[in-house]
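Changelog-adjacent note: as of this version, every example in the card shows the full chain rather than a window. The one below runs 151 residues end to end.
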Amino acid sequence: MIAMRQPFVFRLESVLRLRVRAEQKLCGPVAEAQTRVRDCELRLKSIEQLIEAADAQLERDLKRGLVQGARVSAHAAHAAALRAQANQAQTELLAANARLGVAQEALHKAMSQRKSLQKLRERHQDLWSQREQKEQSAVNDEVAARMFGWT
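Full-length structure tokens:
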């Protein structure tokens, strides 16, 4: 007697697929938040480099005696404007990091939910395989017993 093997069926497969989709949907906001953080960091670095370059230029001009009062006033106004931009960029960076943290936390939660369902599926599949092996072994034993007249 040859037993028809029934395929493995995980009753929560549709829930697992939903968890996978939910996790995939959350990858986009994380990537967008990471991009925003990177952009803010680059902007802040660029502004800081402009401030350093302007300060260095003023210092070189002062050493050479090429600076007039209007130039110092213009530099001070320009430096103040750049520092205001840097403060704004720093604020945006903090906000972007906060959004990134929220997005990563949501993704982590979704990943955890998916992984727990995947582990449950694996355990169910292992149990199913063990039952199938036992049943097949019993069938094989029965066939052998009939062939050799042990029954």
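Structural remarks: The mean pLDDT is 92.
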